[in-house]
Design brief:
Two copies of one chain form a homodimer.
Chain A: H1 2-6, E1 13-17, H2 20-29, E2 34-38, H3 44-51, E3 56-59, H4 66-75, E4 79-82, H5 94-100, E5 103-105, H6 114-125, E6 129-140, H7 155-163, E7 166-170, E8 173-177, E9 184-188, E10 192-198, H8 205-208, E11 213-220, H9 224-234, E12 242-244, E13 247-249, H10 251-259, E14 271-283, E15 286-297, H11 306-323, E16 331-333, H12 341-353, E17 358-364
Parallel strand pairs in A: 1-2, 3-4, 4-5, 5-16, 6-11
Antiparallel strand pairs in A: 6-14, 7-8, 9-10, 10-11, 12-13, 14-15, 15-17
Chain lengths: ~375, ~375
């Protein structure tokens, strides 16, 4: 995100992180066009001081510290575009954000992010919008036994996805399904057969959109889900200490220590991001299905992973639109809350300029 | 084994174990016809004192203490019939056993045990015997996701089977294959499709039989092997401590703590034992294939598991034959070293009287 904004003379970009090596790598990738500041962003006083001189803040923080940082940025009266995952509900901070007169765009990556934007756009376009389905996954191009998976973001958050019950909207009611449930095989062009399973990814649209059927499913290469179900069943994802070999240990710590090194991308290793968002509803008297398909790869020219590209570019696009007033609402805004045609077109154009292409099609349904 | 011998008035049986509850259960199952003595059988002085008054000793000990006990029983000048698994080579103790003038039958269960006996018999009958294959498994009748397996003996020894490289004889040479390698599907009557993989089960016959091709494979329901390969690949069977959550823990301790409860038979739960031993060679000028098939279940009348029946009865049969002089050689004897037709017929008859049936057939090959 820093590299993307720093390419434009209008932006004077400073990056901050607690890890020296992450700062150094980011600065290199930005071609030296950014300032780098080492800072502990879980320290709210430090964060407040750090952001004081800036017009807008972008966030890509660990789930542990995302919500606290969000509150601090709002309290400091700064506009904010954020892709941090957080278990808390960011919209709870909308009243203080409105009061502070700031625009705070949250969950503005790929999914949540573009998925919300397209869902919100479909819900506003179709009358009524009957169903929205989101299928999304970040995967390694090279499939290696046994996981055929690597984590393009925090692997601990991936395990959370595998245990957290998923909220789905069915016939107008929120229902809860176990994680990893209802696996189904899908053939996706360019990717082949993948397996989709329920994840708790609808997030804000469960309450912001009035669509009677909505679900999000995560995509993996076939077989991964079964393995994760087995691990969960055995207790390897357990967070309560057990007694083993005379020690008290948390099984999840052990499987993380063994598994995460195998879930880590090699430097330069190609990843891909695949997403399909479909919406079914009525338009001018006929039932239609709208489909957006994304398939993106690591960019060898910049070295940016597909996950970085597909997640970061919506956020920088939102930041530009906050700065130029295209997104002008105050409060905490997940993308479905500013999903006008103008915003969708602008985001699609800016992403396309960066090589991230969403294919759209409309069919009778 | 105690129950089987105690049924006969000729035997005055005493059982010993370090666990009170195991003794109590065994005494009950023997219908009160045995004496029970609590003793730590890893304490050689205690063992020597315990066996002093007896004519013959039977052993069913943990792999940790089997070899030391064997040495002590030989040193005490007692005849011995043993089903203890041990990593050490029992035949190393043959010279002292010969010197002590004792008959020490080892590895006398189902496999090793009946497998050795039949292999030895085939090697002596065919001229030449070209190939011996042993397929064997102990399985739960009821298959439950995800393991479809329970351990009828020490689950720690089962994990050892999954990591210990397996010795195979190919074209007259001993070759070593990884554990869990060369999986193949087999349809076995009454059991259905099972999967066979290399295990290090040939043991003594690698050096006692002059057969150019010999292998042993263990049987599981399909899928189990893949899961165990994944566990091994990830490092869950590792015995070196790793750092996890601020502790040093041995992964195998953790997976054992989580997995072994699921590998434990419920009281009265039905198990089965399936084995196929085949031998190919020349008999009276024609090439023939000899096949022995075993399929046995828990006996609801006695409550004895199939694993106990198929493993214990060969050992009690051998004990009777030591006592009556049918097996009279001195030294440490795995079953292939006394595999005469008389011994094979006697064992088959005694097992059949107890409901354990080996089906034999001979075909042109």
């Amino acid at each position: 995100m820093a590299a993307d904004l720093a390419r434009e003379p209008a932006y004077d970009v400073t990056i901050a992180d607690v890890r020296e090596e992450a700062l150094a790598l980011a600065a290199t990738r930005c071609g030296g066009r950014v300032r780098a500041v080492r800072a502990d962003l879980s320290d709210q006083a430090a964060l407040r001081k750090l952001i004081a001189p800036f017009d807008i803040v972008l966030g890509a923080l660990s789930s542990r510290i995302g919500f606290a940082a969000l509150r601090t940025v709002i309290g400091a009266g700064k506009n904010y575009a954020d892709i941090s995952f957080m278990a808390e509900d960011a919209i709870d901070l909308s009243p203080p954000a409105e009061k502070a007169g700031v625009t705070t765009v949250v969950d503005c990556g790929v999914a949540p992010g573009m998925s919300n934007l397209l869902a919100g756009y479909a819900a506003a376009t179709l009358a009524p919008c009957e169903a929205i389905e989101i299928y999304v996954g970040g995967l390694p191009v090279e499939r290696r036994w046994p996981f055929e998976y690597k984590a393009a973001f925090s692997p601990a958050d991936v395990i959370e996805e595998y245990v957290r019950p998923s909220r789905i909207v069915e016939n107008g009611r929120v229902v809860v399904r176990p994680a990893l449930s209802e696996p189904e095989l899908l053939d996706l062009p360019g990717v082949g057969t993948v397996e989709a399973f329920n994840t708790d990814g609808l997030r804000s649209i469960v309450r912001t959109l009035n669509v009677p059927n909505m679900k999000e499913k995560t995509l993996r290469y076939p077989g991964h889900i079964e393995l994760m179900r087995v691990f969960r069943e055995i207790g390897l994802f357990g967070t309560e200490a057990i007694s083993a070999g005379g020690h008290h240990v948390v099984p999840r710590d052990v499987i993380a220590a063994l598994m995460f090194p195998k879930w880590t991308y090699e430097p330069g290793e190609r990843d891909l991001t695949v997403m399909r968002v479909t919406a079914v509803g009525v338009q001018r008297g006929g039932r239609v299905r709208l489909t957006w398909d994304l398939l993106d790869y690591l960019d060898p020219a910049t070295g940016f992973t597909s996950m970085a590209r597909t997640t970061g570019f919506p956020c920088t696009s939102a930041a530009r639109m906050i700065v130029d007033g295209t997104i002008s609402k105050r409060g905490v805004l997940p993308p479905e809350l500013f999903a006008t045609k103008a915003v969708v077109d602008r985001m699609m154009t800016e992403m396309q300029e960066r090589g991230v292409r969403y294919e759209f099609r409309q069919e009778a349904a």
